[in-house]
Amino acid sequence: MDWFIEYYNGSGLAVRVVKKLAEIEGIQKVEVYETESLGKMLVIDGKIQLTEFDEAFYHEMLVHVPMLSHPNPKKVGIIGGGDGGALREVLKHDVSRVVLIDIDRNVIEFCKKFLKIDRGAFDDERVEIVVSDGKEFLKQSEKFDVILVDSTDPVGVSDTLFDREFFELARSKCDVFCCQSQSPLVQKEYFKKLLENSSVFEKRTVFLASVPTYPMAIWSFILAGNFDFAEDRFEKIRGKTHHYNPDVHRAAFALPEWMKKEVEGCI
Description:
Elements: E1 2-8, E2 11-25, E3 29-35, E4 40-44, E5 47-51, H1 55-67, E6 75-80, H2 85-90, E7 97-102, H3 105-115, E8 127-131, H4 134-140, E9 144-150, H5 164-173, E10 174-180, H6 188-197, E11 204-210, E12 218-225, H7 246-252, H8 257-263
Parallel strand pairs: 6-7, 6-9, 7-8, 9-10
Antiparallel strand pairs: 1-2, 2-3, 3-4, 4-5, 10-12, 11-12
């Protein structure tokens, strides 16, 4: 056995690997590993995207916070998310149409074959898969009730999903918007960039989740648009979640003092 180590700003995470299950290199380098204690692990361009151990912590917060902040989400757009985790969670709701837009076909095909966290979501009749740049897709797309951005770090192929033009497009194409916004501890430049560029939304806020295998374990999200959480909506998905519930939802918006200072003047 060997170790996979992801480094970030003078620190890092070491994961003991049993074997590499698959690897392919195209517009991104995509790898799937079997780990000793975290299950299967997806790595893109050297960065851990998820492990089976805690992917629900991330995907459930990315999806259910915005979905239950909309009165009746029927049409949902997922930009990125080629692993299928966010798609799986969206389909727990009473949706009629979900479009998943990912720029890298390799991610989708590899995850369907080797990771399988979608649990059949890719084959659901309500789902359309589009291989495209997310921003270019939005320029021509229909309007959605909810748009979710489940992207890699804002560099390389994902860079276009973090500029001001993208957020302006997203604002015009949905009622409720949510994106992951990196680690506010060790990726402050990325986090601040997202706060600044998302200011095109009149209403927005930040919430947090604990994801053990992400840098420093604290992950941030931006929720924007015409959002308004109603706890009784949770009944639609009660019994279908591993991590998320209304108490976790409310607690996610309770920012510690250091975090309040980070977003001061931006929100």
